[in-house]
Amino acid sequence: MYNLLKGKRGIITGALDENSIAWKIALKAKEEGAEFTLTNAPIAMRMGEINKLAEKCGTIIIPADATSLEDIENLYKKSEEHLGGKLDFVLHSIGMSPNVRKKKDYGDLNYEWFLKAIDISALSFHKMMQVGEKLDVFNDHASIVALTYIAAQRTFPDYSDMAQAKAVLESIARSYGYRLGKSKKIRVNTVSQSPTPTTAGTGVGGFDIFMDYADKMSPLGNATAEDCADYVISLFSDLTRKVTMQNLYHDGGFSSSGITDAIIEKFKAEEVGK
Ligand code: NAI
Fold first, then answer.
1. 159 is catalytic
2. What is the SS3 assignment for the chain?
3. What confidence score (pLDDT) does residue 46 get?
């Protein structure tokens, strides 16, 4: 514990259950002295798991569908009221693609669902910043982080239209990062995380193989949700005040590896077994 977020106020989206990356970030933010509200889509509350997190963090939950401008406005107003001031950090940890969920083939996508995936997983990030800017809820030097995946840069067939959604999300971070940087020295970044066993993660076809491959392709091994929480806390802290408009790989070295000994060994073992 370093008290890195002492005196800071924020909003954490996307904690669905204890596997969620946002769940770990909330616990870590609390440990580091932050005060924040939690939010998720009204439909996600039905499971009731998030109540346990709110209790642990001594905070409230404000339901908000991240595609709804009215819900986001209400989220900011209630958060400011509850926390007693403007915000220093926001976590966007939201993703969903109906085409992925329903295992639609990439050559047979439903375009209404495609647009929905982009609205939920990418435009919601723009909406959160636009509404926040209009309501003037951010403090100077605030830090805004969204979670993303390397399928925005490279093709992972089962990731389907979420790859396009993540590319849009990362582009929004650059464009809005410029705007908020100029006006209030606010940082906007995306963190590109290793495959992580969560509800959203395991919804992608072939997830286990995917995760094993990524682990073998990363000299440091896959980054866990806890590791991700540590990294995101550093981005919310004052130690990273000049980092903005970046897509930051948090993946144990996966994104820079061509091949690794672990992969060679695996193929060798298969050759021997032939
Ligand atoms: P998760 O399933 O625990 O979290 C996704 C969250 O999005 C859920 O809490 C869900 O309720 C919320 N959500 C969906 N539609 C919403 C809406 N309309 N309004 C508000 N919230 C909504 O899974 P995870 O993995 O923690 O996902 C968090 C973020 O991390 C996502 O952006 C995901 O794409 C990203 N990510 C996940 C990786 C993985 O392998 N699990 C790898 C890299 C990035």
1. yes
2. CCCCCCCCEEEEECCCCCCCHHHHHHHHHHHCCCEEEEECCHHHHHHCHHHHHHHHHCCCECCCCCCCHHHHHHHHHHHHHHHCCCEEEEEECCCCCHHHHCCCCHHHCCHHHHHHHHHHHHHHHHHHHHHHHHHCCEEEEEEEEEEECHHHCCCCHHHCCHHHHHHHHHHHHHHHHHHHHHHHCCEEEEEEECCCCCHHHHCCCCHHHHHHHHHHCCCCCCCCHHHHHHHHHHHHCHHHCCCCCCEEEECCCHHHCCCCHHHHHHHHHHHHHC
3. 83
pLDDT for residue 271: 84
Evaluate: CB of 93 within 6 angstroms of ligand 1: yes
Q: Ligand 1: which residue has its CA nearest to atom 33?
A: 95
pLDDT the model gives residue 205: 84
Q: Kindly state if the Cβ of 198 falls inside 6 Å of ligand 1.
A: yes
What CATH architecture does domain 9-273 belong to?
A: 3-Layer(aba) Sandwich (3.40)
- Kindly give the number of the ligand 1 atom that is closest to the alpha carbon of 162: 34
What's residue 120's pLDDT?
Answer: 98
Note if 149 is an active site residue: yes
The answer to whether the CB of 229 is under 6 A from ligand 1 is no
Question: Which residue positions in the chain have pLDDT lower than 50?
Answer: none
Predicted TM-score (pTM) of this structure? 0.98
Domain boundaries, given as residue ranges, for the chain: 9-273
Burial (CB count within 10 angstroms: exposed 0-12, middle 13-18, buried 19+), residue 101: middle
CA–centroid distance, 166 to ligand 1, in Å, is 12
